[in-house]
Design a protein that fits this description.
five-stranded mixed beta sheet, two-stranded antiparallel sheet, C-type_lectin-like, C-type lectin domain-containing protein, C-type_lectin/snaclec_domain, Mannose-Binding Protein A, Chain A
Length: about 100
């Protein structure tokens, strides 16, 4: 991203709950999970290890759904990246001496 951030990577249950509490979207928000078309492997946009998951039942359903949404219930759904949705970003803080 131009400002130096990434879409949020959800790497734990605690972080999932924290991000869920920040949003008031009734249709979900884009987070940093993505998959290459035709692959079943998911990645985080910042390169974080993809070890924690919280998929909604029956998800990911794939097809042309290569981006990830945090649903209002706190679980995840895959959707086409072209959908217009709110999103949440994260930034890595650096210490300046």
């Amino acid at each position: 991203m131009a400002a130096g951030g990434d879409l949020a990577s959800i790497t734990s249950s605690g972080l999932n709950n924290f991000v869920e509490a920040l949003t008031s979207s009734s249709s979900g928000i884009f987070i940093g999970g993505w998959a290459t078309s035709g692959e079943s492997t998911w990645y985080w946009s910042d390169g974080s290890t993809f070890s924690y998951t919280n998929w909604n039942s029956g998800e990911p359903s794939r097809g042309s759904e290569d981006c990830m949404v945090l649903r209002p219930a706190g679980n995840w759904n895959d959707l086409p990246c072209s959908y217009a949705k709110a999103y949440i970003c994260q930034y890595t803080l650096t210490t300046v001496a």
